Amino acid sequence: QVQLVESGGGLVQAGGSLRLSCAASGRTFSSYAMGWFRQAPGKEREFVAAISWSGGSTVYADSVKGRFTISRDNAKNTVYLQMNSLKPEDTAVYYCNARRSTTWTTLVGYWGQGTQVTVSS
What we know:
There is one protein chain. This protein is 0% helix and 49% strand. By secondary structure, the protein is an all-beta fold. The strands form two sheets. Strands 2, 4, 5, 6, 9, 10 and 11 form a seven-stranded mixed beta sheet that branches. β5 (46-51) and β6 form a beta hairpin. The termini are far apart.
C-alpha cells in the first residue's frame, strides 16, 4: 500500500504561483506512476497531470499545459506540481494519486486527502 499526504495549497491571486507537494510512504514509491487530479465544487474529479515512475514521461490536461509542471524526486518519495499563471478556474481541491497503470482516464489507485487551492480574481 501507499499512503499519500498533500501540502502546499492556499489562497493566491490570479496570475500567481503555488507549488504542491505529495509525500508518499512505502519503499515502492519509485515503481508507481504519479498524478494530480482536482475537483471543484459541484464538478467531477478531473485529471491535471501525471508523471511516469522514472520521471521521464509527463502528460498534462489541455487546460493546464504550459502553466503547470509535474516532477518527482524518488529519493524523497515526493511528487510536485508547480502551478504558474493561476486562474480563478483553477480553484479546486487537488488530489495526489499513485497507480501502477499509465492510463489516467479512470479514478483508480491510491489517493491523498487533498489540498485546497483557491485563486482569487
